[in-house]
Structure formats: C-alpha cells, structure tokens
Amino acid sequence: MNNILGAHVSIAGGVYLAPARGLEAACDVVQIFNKSSNQWRAKPLTDEDAEKFIAAQEETGVRVVCAHDSYLINLASPDDTLYEKSRAAFAEEMQRCDFLGIENLVMHPGSHIWSGEEVGLKRIAEAFNRIIDEDSDSRVTICMENTAGQGTNLGYRFEQLAEIIDTVEAKDRFGICLDTCHTFTAGYPIKTASDYKKTIKQFDDIIGLDRLRIIHMNDSRKDFATKVDRHEHIGQGFIGSDPFGYILNDRRLTQIPKILETPKDSAADDIANLKLLRSLVKAKKGKK
Ligand SMILES: [Zn+2]
Ligand SMILES: [Zn+2]
User: Fold this and answer.
1) What is the mean pLDDT of the chain?
2) Using 50, 70 and 90 to split pLDDT, how confident is the model at 36?
3) How confident is the model over 128-147, as pLDDT tens digits?
4) Residue 185 C-alpha to ligand 1 middle, in angstroms?
5) CA of 219 to the centre of ligand 2 (A)
6) 288 alpha carbon – ligand 1 mean position (Å)
7) What CATH number belongs to 5-279?
8) What is the pLDDT of residues 62-90, one digit of tens each?
C-alpha cells in the first residue's frame, strides 16, 4: 500500500474541473472548496454538475477525498445572528458534499471571540447536534481540523477536539484532519523522531488514531508554538523535511490521504512539493 498524496486545488469554473487540475499537479487525490471560501452564498449545484464531477474523477483517476469549509463559518460565534448564519451555511456545505459524493468535510471548529473557550466548545457541539438532527441521512464525515490557535481559534489542543466529540450525540459522524503546520505552531513538537512519536501518541491517547481521516502536509513560515498559521513549501519552513518523512513512513498512517496546502502560483509548485514528499518514502526491501 502506497501513501495517498495530493493537494488542495481550485474549483474556478466549476467543481468538475478539480480532478483534472489534480492530475496536472501529479496528485493521487485532491481537496476542494465546494463553494467559494469567502462568500456566504453559493450557486446551487445541478444534477449536471454532479454528473460531470463524478465523470471527471473516473476519467482522471483523481478522487476528491474531502472538501474544506468556508472561512466565514464560525460555529463558536457568540453573536446569535452569525452563529445561525454559520450553522445554516455549514449544513448547506454538508448537503453539497452529499450531493457530489464527497465523503469528508474538513472544517475549522470555530473562534470564541473572547466569550471563553468552554462556552465556545459547547456552542460548536450544540450546532453539530442540530445540523445532524436536521440532516440525519447525510453520509458526510465532519473532519474537525486542529488549528494553530491563532486569535481565539479553538481546536489547537487535542483535548478541545476530544471534548467536542465527547459532547456531540452522533460521535460516529466525526473524524479529524491533522494539519502539520497547525500542530507545530500550536506547540506540539514533531521535529525529531522521538518528539513526533510522543505527539502522535498524545493524539492517539486523547482522540484516537481511528478518528484520523485526512492529514494536511504543510511546512510552517512561523516558528514552534507561535500560534500563527502561515504555510510554507515542504522543507523550506521551520518544520523542515524530516518530520514529513516520519509521517510518510509511519505504517499506521499509510492509508490516510495526505494533502498539501502550500503556497501555489501554478501546478509546478504542487509537483515540486509532491516530488519531495515522495522522495522521503523509504523503499520497502524485498517487495515490489
Ligand atoms: Zn483548514
Ligand atoms: Zn490545513
């Protein structure tokens, strides 16, 4: 079994164009936004959109393994209007994933905006309970992403993600997306093999590796524990390339899709980062 590697690709011009962009960038799989990431409104998807989307994945062999939610959504917002708007928008994103057959929806848990971490975590869980209650047929796995902890962002400690899962009713509907840059700048050491092992063990003890659905492979433009979220090309940031090798050669993680969200001017950037990642995979001796 080989690592499944890919990148976040654009949906400009239509969601069905994403798989070809992935193929151009040497991706096995891709992540997309299923609507514009900085707008509340989205044009409804048509049957034709869905058909073309499925056909494009078959033609290219590039599967869309996850969508990433809009940056406007804040399920921890203390402002009732924004909270309701976020809840409706997230529910719509789940419906769009279902409609397109996308299994995983990666999302940032939310920002408490100085209302307090515990209050924020409860609001997120309550929003999830209502969303799932109102759309119980959905097959989408909600993948909460760990964050860098910038500003009042929640989800920078594994305990916070575990607490949300503990509080929601439909626990089987939840997975985790682990972002390497966020993990590192949130203050989890991963630079040496032993630090990496300790951090993954903490994740396993607190959340459980069985919840891990997606890994975001990003180097960091900011140093350890700075709580700042700035992605960098693999090997060119404060993380360096070694920790990506620990991940790629960790047999427990082989089947978890690994997605780049590194800076991109053209497909060439993803091609270079993916080439570097693939070069870090140690050849298995005696096996083809
Ligand atoms: Zn994210
Ligand atoms: Zn990420």
Assistant:
1) 97
2) confident
3) 999 999 999 999 999 999 99
4) 14
5) 11
6) 35
7) 3.20.20.150
8) 999 999 999 999 999 999 999 999 999 99
Q: How far is the CA of 32 from the centre of ligand 2 (A)?
A: 12
Distance 214 CA to ligand 2 centre (A): 9
The ligand with the least distance to the CA atom of 259 is 2
Cα–ligand 1 centroid distance for 108 (angstroms):
6
Contact residues for 190 (Cβ-Cβ < 8 A; gap 6+) = 180, 183, 184, 196, 199, 239, 243, 246
Q: Find where tokens 């869980």 sit.
A: 125
Note the pTM of the prediction, 2 decimals: 0.97
| pLDDT of 288 | 46
* Residue-level pLDDT at 246: 98
CA-based diameter of the chain, in Å?
A: 60
- Tell me the two tokens of residue 269: 């950037």
Neighbours of 214 (CB within 10 A): 24
